[in-house]
Specification:
With about 425 residues, the chain is an alpha/beta fold. The chain is built from 14 helices and 24 strands. α6 links the parallel β10 and β11. Bound molecules: uridine-diphosphate-N-acetylglucosamine. Uridine-diphosphate-N-acetylglucosamine binds next to α1, α5 and α6.
Length: about 425
């Protein structure tokens, strides 16, 4: 177990390279199960969640080699020997549930532990199951597992999602590429990670159109071929570094990013007074003297991402004026608030709304990362706090930020990983 010790007050300067997206590589690894042969995934971030997904697909019969130096994973699949995703792995990472669609499509059966609750909300999987059932699978739940099976090949169907769930869209998309006939997913999620998955599936020979819009059409095929795929850059990591630059009064160039994926974050930071220059795959952030309060409300893409809410709140605590943050995606995603308050933040919560009184300087304190993005918000607060901040439970941060402290140090930050 380690903690991060951050000394605040140093403006960040320099260039940072953004890693491949966690939320793109996890479904990409699951998608490798749809084929036989050797697939290669590139620009893979070295993250705990990626190692967990590698262990899971290994346990299902795939040979997986993660060359962290080359940032490359090769996945060799033959006949899948297993069809069960055990509790130990699904429990540590909800995205493990994404193997269900590919297993069902390829093996005709899948048994996956129910993800259960997690810190940020109950996070059910009803929409995933509704989709599988529409494709002809029989679903049974019991003893903490969901079992889906189909005697014949899955059959294409028209599926309307009650909410544009990212995971459900990905799982149903992966199940339907090998189904018989046409599937239409309506009210589908439109996140860039969905488009990336569809791009990879198309390169494997799948027929998918409309990814990135709310209607995705899939015409099933008999067989898919292995592929080589480079995952998109992580828009949440990029957004977090933009805030780090703005909060510390810094001047930072963020490389390997897709500006289009960051529209809501860029728009809100500009509204707040941050100076931002954009090029196709680069963002230059310069802090201005006066940063103003802005209101945000999280929404599915292209709205403001829930995965940036905690970090944005850490930022808004330092801007001039009062701001309002409304979380519409997850019911319990304000756990960072009590930790930020330990550092001096003035925040009031009413249901899914937080009211932030800005302009109160942070004071370094001992705080705890309660989840991945909450952990990132504490690092941001620590970077501009007076004195030392000690952040514990940083395994949450390691799940989704590659070498966070190394990248920050390269920009001049005083941050250390200290083993306990
Ligand atoms: C993905 C991201 C996560 C991000 C989230 C929302 C990955 C690995 N994770 O998570 O970082 O915060 O999108 O952008 O890509 N829901 C249901 N029934 C379902 C499925 C979801 O009610 O069957 C609800 C959830 O409880 C939640 C909302 O829909 O309130 C959004 O969830 P979803 O879009 O599915 O998020 P994930 O795919 O789990």
């Amino acid at each position: 177990m380690s903690i991060f010790v951050v000394e605040g007050g140093i403006p960040l300067n320099g260039t940072v390279r953004i890693s491949g997206a966690k939320n793109a590589i996890l479904p990409a690894l699951a998608a490798c199960l749809l084929t036989e042969g050797k697939s290669v995934l590139k620009d893979v971030p070295n993250l705990e969640d990626v190692h967990t997904m590698c262990s899971l697909i290994r346990s299902l019969g795939a040979k997986v080699n993660f060359d962290t130096e080359k940032r490359e994973i090769t996945v060799e699949t033959g006949l899948l020997v297993e069809h069960t995703a055990p509790y130990e792995l699904v429990n540590t990472m909800r995205a493990s549930f994404l193997v269900m669609g590919p297993l069902l499509a390829k093996r005709g059966k899948a048994k996956v532990s129910l993800p259960g609750g997690c810190a940020i909300g109950s996070r059910p999987v009803d929409l995933h199951l509704k989709g599988f059932s529409a494709l002809g699978a029989t679903i049974n739940t019991g003893h903490g597992y969901v079992e889906a099976q189909t005697r014949e090949r899955l059959k294409g169907a028209r599926i309307y999602l009650d909410f544009p769930s990212v995971g459900a869209t990905e799982n149903i998309l992966m199940a339907s590429v090998l189904a018989k006939g046409q599937t239409v997913i309506e009210n589908a999620a439109t996140e860039p990670e969905i488009v990336d998955l569809a791009t990879m599936l198309v390169s494997m020979g799948a027929h998918v159109t409309g990814a990135g819009t709310d209607t995705i059409r899939i015409v099933g095929t008999d067989k898919l071929k292995p592929t080589e795929h480079t995952v998109i850059p992580d828009r949440i990591e990029a957004g977090t570094f933009m805030l780090a630059a703005a909060l510390t009064g810094g001047d930072v160039v963020i490389e390997n990013t897709m500006v289009d994926h960051l529209k809501p974050v860029i728009a809100k930071l500009r509204e707040s007074g941050v100076l931002i220059d954009e090029e196709f795959n680069k963002i230059h952030v310069t802090a201005s003297q006066s940063l103003k309060a802005v209101d945000i409300k999280t929404h599915p893409y292209p709205g403001f991402p829930t995965d940036m809410q905690a970090q944005m709140m850490a930022y808004l605590c330092q801007t001039e004026g009062t701001s309002m943050v409304v979380e519409t995606i997850f019911e319990n995603r304000f756990m960072h608030v009590s930790e930020l308050k330990r550092m001096g933040a003035r925040i009031k919560i009413d249901g899914r709304t937080a009211i932030i009184e800005g302009g109160v300087p942070y004071m370094g304190a001992q705080v705890k990362a309660t989840d991945l993005r909450a952990g990132a918000s504490l690092i941001l607060a620590g970077l501009c706090a007076e004195g030392l901040t000690e952040i514990s439970d940083i395994y949450h941060i390691d799940r989704g930020y590659e070498a966070m402290e190394v990248k920050l140090k390269d920009l001049g930050a005083q941050i250390k990983r200290v083993p306990l």
